[in-house]
Amino acid sequence: MDGKWNSHVTVLNLATGLPPGRFDDTSWGWEFSPDETLLAAGMEDHSITLRNLEARTNVTRLKAHTGGIRSLKFSPDGRHMAAASEDNTIRLWDTTSWKELDLLRGQMGGVIAAMFSPDGRFLASGSADQALKLWDVSSIPARELLNFPIAPYFPSSVMLPPDSSVLVVNVINGVTEQRTVLLLRAPSFAEIDAREKAKKQERATVSGNN
Fold this sequence. Notes:
The chain is mainly beta. The chain has one helix spanning 189-209; strands at residues 8-11, 21-24, 26-32, 38-43, 48-52, 57-62, 69-74, 80-85, 90-94, 100-104, 111-116, 122-127, 131-136, 143-149, 153-159, 166-173, 179-185. A hairpin with a 4-residue loop joins β5 (48-52) and β6 (57-62).
């Protein structure tokens, strides 16, 4: 033993047994693109490496976060990638140009988990501040729609079922350290749409009366 902590991810092709790539010094976050041609991996220096698994070459390295990458998620259509970080933020990236689209702020602790809705319009996030947020990412800049305090629980992962009014969250009790799953009642996507349309109509009416 040399006293050093060695961390890496090795990807194996199950058909050939050949490793198309290895990432040294990775942190917790890594994710395959929907078409399985790319692997995104969060690195110890807080950057994100994108690797083309077929060509066995690195595509690019994204440097923006100031904390460890805890979760990486591609949108279902593969056009966007969300990176959740211990620096309390989420960054949205365009996967064609690899330019940063938006910076989502509002969580008061490191962001541990993130997940797109099946249609890619919404993003759920969970943070060490013991709260979940739901974001509208259908347009830029993204908008925070909902906030769910879940103390004494800390989220470890979050899921958005198709057109559902329930958030499924894997959590750890901060007091007992017991792991469990929470089902949180939330407005359905249809209800959120109706609420947003009503707000726009109200603003338009107020503006017209001035």
